[in-house]
Amino acid sequence: MKYYPHTEEEVTDMLRSIGVSSVDEFFSDIPPDKIIKKLNLPPPMSEYEVVKAITELSQLNESCLKKPSFLGAGSYRHFIPAVVNAVLSRSEFYTSYTPYQAEASQGILQTIFEYQTLICALTGLDVSNASLYDGSTACAEAVSMAINHTGKKEILYSAALHPEYVEVLKTYFNPSGMAILREIPLSEGTIDDKFVEENVTANTAGVIIQNPNCLGFIERAEKISKAVKEKNSKTLFIIAVTEPHSLGILKNPGECGADICIGEGAGLGIPPSFGGPYLGFMAVKAALLRRIPGRLVGQTIDADGKRAFCLTLQAREQHIRRDKAASNICTNEALCALAASVYLSYLGKSGFSALARLNFSRAVYLKDRITSIKGFKLLADRPFFNEFTVKCPDNPVKIWRYLSRHGITGGFVTGKWRIEWADCLTFCVTELNDKDGMDRLADYLESYCRDEVSSECMIN
Amino acid sequence: MNIPEGLFYTKEHEWVKTKNGIATIGVTEYAVNQLGDIVFVELAKTGEVLKQFESFGVVESVKTVSDLYAPVSGEVIERNPALLQDFDGEENPDFHPEYINEDPYGKGWLLKIRSSDEEELKNLMTAEQYKDFCK
Amino acid sequence: MYDKLIFEISKPGRSTFSVSERGVPESRPEENLPAEVLSRSGPDLPEVSEPDLIRHYTNLSAKNYGLDSHFYPLGSCTMKYNPKVNERLAALPGFTDIHPYSDTDEVQGALKLMAVLEKSLCEISGMRAFTLQPAAGAHGELTAMLIARAYFKDQGASAGERKKILIPDSAHGTNPASAVLGGFETVEIKSDERGNVDLACLESHLDESVACLMLTMPNTLGVFDENMKKISAMVHEKGALLYLDGANLNAIMGITRPAELGFDMMHINLHKTFSTPHGGGGPGAGPVGVCEKLVPFLPGPRPVFNGKRYIFEEPEKSIGRVRAFYGNFLIFVRALAYIFSLGGSGIRESARMAVLNANYLKEKLKSMFYVKYDRKCLHEFVLSGIWQKEKGAGTKDIAKRLLDFGFYAPTTYFPLIVEEALMIEPTETESRETLDSFVETLKIIDREINENPKQVTTAPHNTPVKRLDEVTAARKPVLRWTKP
After folding, report:
1. In the B/C pair of chains, how many CB contacts fall below 8 A?
2. B39 touches chain C (CB under 8 A)
3. Distances (CA, A) of C85 to B53, C336, C341
4. Whether the Cβ atoms of residue C288 and residue C336 lie closer than 8 Å to each other
5. Which of A377, C368, C400, C432 is the most buried (most CB within 10 A)?
6. Which has more confidence, C276 or C159?
7. How close is the nearest chain B Cα to the Cα of C411, in Å?
8. Mean pLDDT score, C245-268
9. With bands split at pLDDT 50, 70 and 90, how would you rate the model's confidence at B117?
10. Does A330 touch chain C (CB under 8 A)?
11. Cβ of C474 and B63 within 8 Å?
């Protein structure tokens, strides 16, 4: 299958009008000994063959789709209403380009403006950008902002910041030493605020916490913010939100005193997608406007005085600022941002809150059922939203495999993140997990414990 | 092109006018033509000490950003309030970046500094020399 | 024309969304969570009915040009047709619904897809291995900078020894931005009067303090550097690395292999060369390919076949992750479907047709516009609007007037080394009629500039809005809606 329309005659004709006898002549600046005759790839496939080949690959993944899943750990499964895909599949949106020519791109520009507004509403901050790649790189951008804004290098980050986000920070900042990363330990599953009080200094550019944290527990963000600002009012307080549905119940980062809120917006209308494309969001206080990376859509008027939207403050971006740009981001996640806009607008104020409350009720139900089983207890007696971590009476990997064999994807093996959590499992409950599914999970955990020395366990 | 006499000019298209040890600094009409409509200015703060030819800020238009380089050394004693978008977080209702476009040698002045070394003017161009430079 | 913000059609109680039955006893946050963490009222989101919501977005889409409806001759962007079968495949639940932390045994199809894509990109580029993690070209560039840094450190270079990245003056802005973010200093290398890298300039800056030369090939002028071999030799002689910004791969895929031209690493823009949709600005993907000696430094984990199954493996000297999870997976699905569709021969022929289309257009336009570098081009070329500017309407105005005729404008004011630049890349998926129509339109506009320039300087006239006041937008930024 091919997508270029040229017939043989057209090619001949076009070559004649250029005054050249063969297409090969255009490549004459390429060293002749470097010209290849063919690629060692399979021959072209018909559309049917392509569908067959790729569908076969998708079918290899289907066994886990049949199992109810309690996996969260930074990627949250939520129900995606049909309107999201209906809007996203409009080709005027998904086949359009970055809206540099504003007059021909008012559709996309307005949706981004609305997205920026919605993210500000969600986070309680003043300015949102048009999106970043994902939560982890948004976290790195926040660190860049903090070090550029304060001129200092030290970044204190929570030990319960998503460990892959931490890895990204280390990859970005350790080699050059542009930022000095220091971990804030936990105390009983959440941030040790005494550590924060004792370690924020005049050299601290930023403090990053995740809320709810990677164990699912809710941090006392406002208290930590006050502690930080008391020690150094210039230190930027950054809150990372990997599960934005939590903002249907929790005090928003702006109210908690955050200067920057970043996070993973994929839960808002984008499926798990094996990790991408996702949606990094970032919102900041007004004072940081000129430091914010990425595109910004602003409102203006046209020559007739009509309201219109355009990319603005572009002079901060790489295509103008080049080596002095604060960020190198160009392509972002515009279509994913559109999905989030549609999702949030569709759920609306009452729907978003109701959904968050539903998630919470169900999570509490599961937590109660699991912790009523002997040997399972919450890792820490801390509040949570829709995800929590429990200590298990036996090797969590064995328990996980047992659940898997019985048709359940039982949460995240927390020990993959840290040795200290090697006896834990982190369960996430959303509106996609119904009572029956949760009861089955709990029942199997019970039967696992009963049969702890059964033959099934001996095999492993 | 307007290139007033009595001012001194840098290769980066800044001008400076000194009187009684106070130097007023701005950007030239040439710079303004290159930049287009100015939207934002970032300037060294009052009290900061500048060194000749080192960057003291940035001038931003819709399509580009340019660094600003100090024509002379000295301590910043005043910034043009019409060019500051906010005063410590409070929005400035009299923010007029367009003054730089409209009147780069007058209303659009950037900074006043207490210049430390008269001799430094020798490193700059006169109006005649700058006129040639711009050709 | 429809002109409402979603917040303006919102009314409390309008929402038609409903939540499922709880099915479990209610746990109220107010009773179960500390008051200090609770929101008083939840976020202020709009409330609209589903019909109104759909009407809103559908009407907005009508105010938007898209590639499906309009020709986008955007240089450097490779706006080629986005095949619909790719969209269908990327929507399969076996791809969309799998969690990244699924047991790898249960998602072998996903790992295999990534591995097959990687292998295909290796065959096309000549590179030994790819990381699929980077979410975009710029992200890939940064990844490559970090790999370069790790490589030299591993070679025994002291910190700061290899501190410079050389970048041509014609390069895309992401190149220097990425270099600086990677902790390097940048040095600009001039282009000569033929648009090649100025060898003397390159020589004067090439020493053992240089980590890497970043090139785009063909370059942003659309021409292939006549000294490619020499440049590669010069760079490697000093022990430095040669990086390819693969944005222009559409010109040479199947014709030559970057690795064979001497490139040690490169990024590919799947959303350019491999037909994945631009989505109004993203998502894309910017996989980074490396030569043998750099493979150990790739970000991990990477999908590899261990003889029995696909597993994730960490390269031995990995620079670490450059993002959470594995990459923009659904973009990989589309790209692989595209590669399967075209096959080796189709990929090669696509490059040939892209280059034919560009030369055809250039031939027809080169007398109308000043061409600074009069050379045979590959898949794109740069014109200058300076003649028109002298008559009163420059590149910006021409771009706006093109919108009136139903064409999205070419890339404007880039590369920086051409004044009033107009960069045109038709891609291979455009028919001759479209190209001829584009030429005719430019002829009309050129005539207008001679006879009635105001028609052009006040364009666009036929789009949903007229020319925008971008100055006020920047002076008084209004970046969100607020309740009046």
Report:
1. 15
2. yes
3. 59, 12, 10
4. no
5. C400
6. C276
7. 14
8. 98
9. confident
10. yes
11. no
Location of structure tokens 């940064």: C142
Sign of CA dihedral C215, A296, C398, C436: positive
Evaluate the CA torsion angle C355, C357, C361, C363 in order and state its sign: positive
Query: Does position C236 have pLDDT exceeding 90, yes or no?
Result: yes
A120, two tokens: 């500000």
d(CA A290, CA C477): 11
Contact call for B40 and C475, based on CB within 8 A: yes
Q: Name which of A83, A89, A328 to mutate to probe chain C: the one with the most chain C Cβ atoms within 10 A of its Cβ.
A: A328
Q: Distance between CA A75 and CA A215 in Å, rounded?
A: 13
As for the ipTM of the complex, it is: 0.96
**Using CA atoms, how far apart are residues A233 and B88, in angstroms rounded to an integer?**
14
Substitution target from C414, C420, C475 for chain B, most B beta carbons within 10 A: C475
Q: Is C87 left (phi over 0), alpha (psi -120 to 50) or beta?
A: alpha
* Cα separation values, C412 from A332, C363, C415, Å: 20, 20, 8
User: Do A124 and C484 form a contact (C-beta atoms < 8 A)?
Assistant: no
Strand ranges across the sheet with B74-79: B8-9, B14-19, B22-27, B111-115, B74-79, B49-50
Q: What average pLDDT score do residues A341-363 get? A: 97
| C-alpha torsion A7→A10→A14→A19, nearest 10 | 100
Distance CA A166, CA C316 (A): 20
- What the block records as the tokens of A313 is 């403050």
Mean pLDDT of A121-128: 98
Q: Bridge partners of A390?
A: A378, A425
- Reported in sequence order, the residue ranges of A27-94 that DSSP labels E, i.e. its strands, are none
Average pLDDT over residues C171-175: 91
Q: Is the distance from CB of A162 to CB of A242 less than 8 angstroms?
A: yes
What is the percent of chain A with per-residue pLDDT over 90, rounded to a whole number?
A: 92
CB contact under 8 A, C39 and A47: no
Q: pLDDT band for position A457 (50/70/90)?
A: very low
| Greatest distance between any 2 Cα atoms in chain C | 77
| SS3 state of residue A392 | coil
3-state DSSP helix/strand/coil % of chain B, to nearest 5 = 20, 35, 40
Based on the number of CB atoms within 10 Å of its own CB, is C228 exposed (0-12), middle (13-18) or buried (19 or more)? buried
The candidate with the shortest Cα–Cα distance to B25, out of B35, B12, B40, B39, is B12
Question: Longest Cα pair distance anywhere in chain A, in angstroms?
Answer: 85
Confidence of residue C465 (pLDDT cuts 50, 70, 90): very high
C61/A58 Cβ within 8 A = no
Backbone angles phi, psi at A238, to 5 degrees: -115, 125
In this predicted model, what pLDDT tens digit does every residue of A254-288 receive, in sequence order? 999 999 999 999 999 999 999 999 999 999 999 99
Average pLDDT value for residue range C124-145: 97
